[in-house]
Amino acid sequence: MANLGLLYGSKTSNSSVIVSFRIPYFTHWGQQILVCGSERVLGAWNVKKGLLLKPSHEGDELIWSGTLSVPAGFNSEYSYYVVDDEKNVLRSEAGKTRKMSLPNGVRIGQLVELRDLWQAGSDDLPLRSAFKNVIFRKSWNLEAERRVEKPLEPVQNPSDDKDSVVVQFRVCCPNVEQGTSIYVIGSSSKLGKWKIEDALKLSYAGESVWLAESVLTKDDFPIKYRYCKSDKAKNIAVETGGNRELLVDFSTSQPKYIVLSDGLMREMPWRGAGVALPMFSIRSEADVGVGEFLDLKLLVDWAVQSGFHLVQLLPINDTSVHGMWWDSYPYSSLSVFALHPLYLRVQALSENISEDIKQEIQRTREHLDGKVVDYEGAMAAKLSIAKKIYSVEKKTVFNSVAYQNFFSENQDWLKPYAAFCFLRDFFETSDHSQWGRFSHFSEDKLEKLVSIDSIHYDIIGFHYYIQFHLHIQLSEASEYARAKGVVLKGDLPIGVDRNSVDTWVYPSLFRMNTSTGAPPDYFDKNGQNWGFPTYNWEEMSKDNYAWWRNRLTQMAKYFTAYRIDHILGFFRIWELPEHSLTGLCGKFRPSIPLSQEELEKEGLWDFNRLSRPYIRQQMLQEKFGSSWTIIASSFLDEYQKDHYEFKEECNTEKKIASKLKSCLEKSILLESEEKLRRNLFDLLQNVVLIRDPEDSKSFYPRFNLEDTSSFNDLDNHSKDVMKKLYYDYYFQRQETMWRQNALKTLPVLMNSSDMLACGEDLGMIPSCVHPVMQELGLIGLRIQRMPNEPGLEFGIPSQYSYMTVNAPSCHDCSTLRAWWEEDEERRSRYFKTVVGADVAPPDRCTPEIAHFVLRQHVESPSMWSIFPLQDLLALKEEYTTRPAVEETINDPTNPKHYWRFRVHVTIESLLKDRELVSVIKGLVRSSGRSYPPSQDDELQLEKPSIENGKKEEAQFTASKLANKEAVTV
User: Fold this and answer.
1) Which of 557, 504, 532 is nearest to 752 (CA)?
2) Helix, strand, coil: what percent of the chain each, to 5?
3) What is the pTM of this model?
């Protein structure tokens, strides 16, 4: 929220003034409200020394209040906190801290009452840069108008009148069009008796806050009032909801000044739409084999024409770890700060490119203009061309003011990044443990390596040069989007590659003997292993998560919104041993394990039986048939009759994979490697408990343990105990810890920038996640085929909450067309339950089906509907000739998936397709969602009302489906 404190300062007296804090807030048993601030009298931001408020009931409200004496001219920042009996913080306000300074004219001993409202996370959203600097970006300058306006003068001091009080009305209203004024109207004659012409006009006070003061007398109370807008044409928009009320008890020691901080003006919730597309998937007439940052300007133009306020990308950081197509995986960062050279437009490196290089660029462009991205080819070609231009331009660039400013602002990450790239290429590996004396990072070694006098400086400088131009090009596209009213939304990956600049420079921040993943879920029934090391949150907390704060600060240079990848990882992460290849046998970190003492109390004693792979001869015969003896002799030892265990040299997944490969090379086994590996992994994973490698008396229940023969061969008592403990571990005992963990880390991220934050909250969701996201003002994600609600196969967009982004698909699953076509039975269920048709659905996802699905989403209450471009292209037949499966961006079940999808049409051709643009904008406009103004707007020649628009959309879809498929909607 905005800073809703007093603005005027006074230095006329050193005597005491009484300040009263008053805030309505319902607490639970054992909770109290405390105010803490920057000045010593308010605890100097030490909550333990803050001012505890006292509760009292006023009607249906629980009011917390407290007073203190301060000198005249007092200034302070402050915030409210929910605390327990020991003053431990249970909940903090969201948004910026409040600012307080006493008004002019306050006399000795007078009471100034601050009436505040709790600042919830959602209250802060309109002040995030996505809204403040983009969507609500003014063509007129409120701050400039404020400077030329006559300053607000304090009203007459009513100190001699016992039956009057000065009330300062304050409201936050970030979206005000030019020529529009803000008023407060109400039951008092001072507020116009509900007539706008006599209402109290507010003045702009900065930071989206509007205020006005009025002297009100005893006869004016109680007052009912509302805020409203009035434009040049005298159109009036009164805020929604019930009347606000102001009561003052004149029978007690009433205040002489009341500062009424009323939070946000209550307006209809803003809703918008957007398009999602990976950077590499964009196709333009100028790109060299892959989407480039400057192509975003074209995509922004198309978004504006189509009625979209947002363009969403996948991560754009450098991933050049392996020097091959594996690096196409955008979530495995080489550096969380460096941009990817893949997205460089080489033609824009210089205005003086030689003719032969221009011809080379054109030949390369034609060669790489294929159906999909050739990652290795595009990278090699761009770097080769860039080096030729660099050799000519480097001195000019390095001597420029723009470059020197860039280097000065970014050298903390830029120097290590350039050094890492040099060492990676020199040693031909990114595994920094193989770099000899450079394996361990030090500032001294770094400075020698990147010194301008170093014999390697020309190579180091090349990496500086590339990053500088990437910065220039992305900044140009980013500012273009802002100016057009389009939010550029980035993606914050949950992990970094274990062979990255970040793990080299900050090894203490990572648990390098572990791996990050996700337990079995919609995406993969065997779980996922992403290969990233988990974070050492305890170490990160020592400098208040500086690494994270720096990441977000860097990201905010280009983006005004971002997606937090796998937000569940900030509550708890699925941690696997580094030697794992699959994602099944992990544990949550942090989590409270099952202790040996706890298990013994439940009557479980044989921990080897429960935690050791349970392998019997019969299982071997069932899995491997006649080859079982060869498998047993190669991989297992028989430690007692018919009981087997893995040999030491193959008792992990990585060891098994290596041993299996050597066996196959010797032609010992005839079955496929994949099938043998899967069966061997099944044996290794056939456990009930996983013993903690760092504490032998702590255990974790294996995920889906009831699916194992190890569990099914237990006695009934042991089964019942394990089922109870399994449920307790995964669904009960961790909730408080996970909530506290998220409330330590997520607010730091959100306060590191003013970007709008969205969280990807798909998968196995603990019950604490959504309340925390709501508390912090984090926007969640809803995918119709992955409903959060139990018992639903398909989500119901009309029932989504406002604080969500909805989409029919995402990059981690099949597109709308592919999903429709891949499962006939599911398609029929969807057609019956969602479309409401009793006949067989079409085999293909026709444009009419796509239109129906998109309309469901865009008409939902969600703040955002963001559609993958592939799903939007499904609205027109000519764009659906490509097989649907080829439009899928990622297969989460394949850790070595090649991320190479390219749109099969150029953005330039989409810009010319008025028919498609008209259909898309019609969907957005008829839904009542906001859309950016378009200079070339032939589509607005006819402007139906929202209700008429909805009827037309419904009639269009229903008639098309009825005519083509003999159904009604």
Assistant:
1) 557
2) 40, 20, 40
3) 0.91
